[in-house]
Amino acid sequence: MDHLDYVLVVTALSSVLWLYTKSKRRSPPLPPGPWGLPIVGNLPFLKPDLHTYFLDLAKTHGPIFKLWLGAKLAIVVTSSEVAREILKTNDVIFANHDVTAVGMVNMYGGIDIVLSPYGPRWRMLRKLCVNKILSNARLDLSVNLRRGETRRTVRYLADQARVGSPVNLGEQIFLMILNVLRQMLWGGTVEEEEREIVGAEFLELITEMSDLLMKPNISDFFPALSRFDLQGLAKRMRDPTLKMDRLFDRVIKKRLEMDRESEKKGEDFLEVLLKLKDEEDDKTNLNLNDVKALLMDMVLGGIETSLHIIEFAMAELLNRPDIMKRAQQELEKVVGKDKVVEESHISKLPYILAIMKETLRLHMVAPFLIPHRPSQTTVVSGFTIPKDSKVFINVWAIHRNPNVWENPLEFDPDRFLDKSYDFNGNDFNYLPFGSGRRICVGMAMGERVVLYNIATLLHSFAWKLPQGKRVEVEEKFGIALKLKNPLIATPVLRLSDPNLYL
Ligand code: HEM
């Protein structure tokens, strides 16, 4: 090799090396992750309780790892630092929710808040909810709609208490929350006799839709196959969605037929939404489908979350009579035994609030939030996160991190009396409602409904378990995390005046 050749070879090699390091520098690698099979990736290895399975994987692969769910790349985050990078540092890029094939059928083609991509339409819907429907001022107007349903449950439980009969508490809480939400949506519209019919149908449809939304779907793992709907899930979702749509139509028609002048104004969501739709100077340009998609969001976002928090809280308290007693002492001091709890009391009940916060820490009902989806390829913690991947933030695991939470598996509301964690998502170790742009829009309502109903159940009744029994507080993964086994307990009247149970 003469000198010129030597120079050429060295130059060529250096250029290749330079290009290689440059390209390396330009695109960091994907996060690490477990090996998968060709085509199906990690799908065959998934376990039903995804939240615990993902935590186990994080122990091997670190706070950010990847999985191939068929052709779809999933990124799983298990630390508050990485969660912050996603939800705060890169919040606009991650401000979309992942869209599923069945969700699109259920949500009028994705025109609702949850599935709308971040942009002007989502902003308009969100503003409408925050200012006109779910604000504290608006919720103050509908306090009686909520109160009536809770009192109805108290009457039923009091009847059972008088005969010493155990109740399926989870079932009762479900019915109570379902009815509270139904009342908020259109309670001022539907008359008493029709209420029962609409209620029974409502319960059936919600259960069916939640089940379908949870089913793993080939259409999501291989989007190119989605038009074949190989498991028939989209087709199956059409039926309950159509029935719910007809139910919405019925109540909307009823509302439109009512003599508006003679009705009380501004109580239920439907009335507010229809009024907005008809306002001439309204800039939202809402149409009927928009109204129905918003009602659907409230139905699916508002019921399962609140109901499971109350159920988990009651399950924990039944195992901890000392904590239940402290909560009841607080209620006696603030409300007294000669009155019933009202929503106006809840801001004066810090221990009940601590019970709600601790329940949400230990049993995060939306364990991965609603999975987010980056609108462009970006780098997080030194790894490339490609556009459109599905990002699971395992908040359930973050809430149990032993480096942050002392004795994380113990139910201890006191930790929230000492530290000022709130629900606003500012501390990335505690994110029960999410954080940033997509934080839960129904937070104010969820907080009221949960606090008021826990307070009422504890104030009106002492609760007994069969002799020597404990509640197994086990979790079951689903669209919302729920208690695995039925919660059976016997209510015992606590208040001396029988009129307080009417
Ligand atoms: C206490 C009960 C509740 C909890 C724990 C809860 C939790 C959450 C969480 C974790 C998210 C996802 C945040 C994210 O993706 O980053 C969310 C979103 C949402 N929640 Fe809630 N929620 C509750 C009650 C409600 C209620 C009562 C409603 C409505 C009536 C509601 C409506 C929604 C909607 C529409 C979204 C989507 C917001 C968006 O995409 O911009 N939630 N919620």
Automatic annotation (TrEMBL):
<dbReference type="InterPro" id="IPR001128">
    <property type="entry name" value="Cyt_P450"/>
</dbReference>
<dbReference type="InterPro" id="IPR002401">
    <property type="entry name" value="Cyt_P450_E_grp-I"/>
</dbReference>
<dbReference type="GO" id="GO:0020037">
    <property type="term" value="F:heme binding"/>
</dbReference>
<dbReference type="GO" id="GO:0016705">
    <property type="term" value="F:oxidoreductase activity, acting on paired donors, with incorporation or reduction of molecular oxygen"/>
</dbReference>
<keyword id="KW-0479">Metal-binding</keyword>
<feature type="binding site" description="axial binding residue">
    <location>
        <position position="440"/>
    </location>
    <ligand>
        <name>heme</name>
    </ligand>
</feature>
<dbReference type="InterPro" id="IPR017972">
    <property type="entry name" value="Cyt_P450_CS"/>
</dbReference>
<dbReference type="InterPro" id="IPR036396">
    <property type="entry name" value="Cyt_P450_sf"/>
</dbReference>
<keyword id="KW-0560">Oxidoreductase</keyword>
<keyword id="KW-0349">Heme</keyword>
<keyword id="KW-0408">Iron</keyword>
<dbReference type="Pfam" id="PF00067">
    <property type="entry name" value="p450"/>
</dbReference>
<comment type="similarity">
    <text>Belongs to the cytochrome P450 family.</text>
</comment>
<protein>
    <recommendedName>
        <fullName>Cytochrome P450</fullName>
    </recommendedName>
</protein>
<dbReference type="GO" id="GO:0005506">
    <property type="term" value="F:iron ion binding"/>
</dbReference>
<dbReference type="GO" id="GO:0004497">
    <property type="term" value="F:monooxygenase activity"/>
</dbReference>
<keyword id="KW-0503">Monooxygenase</keyword>
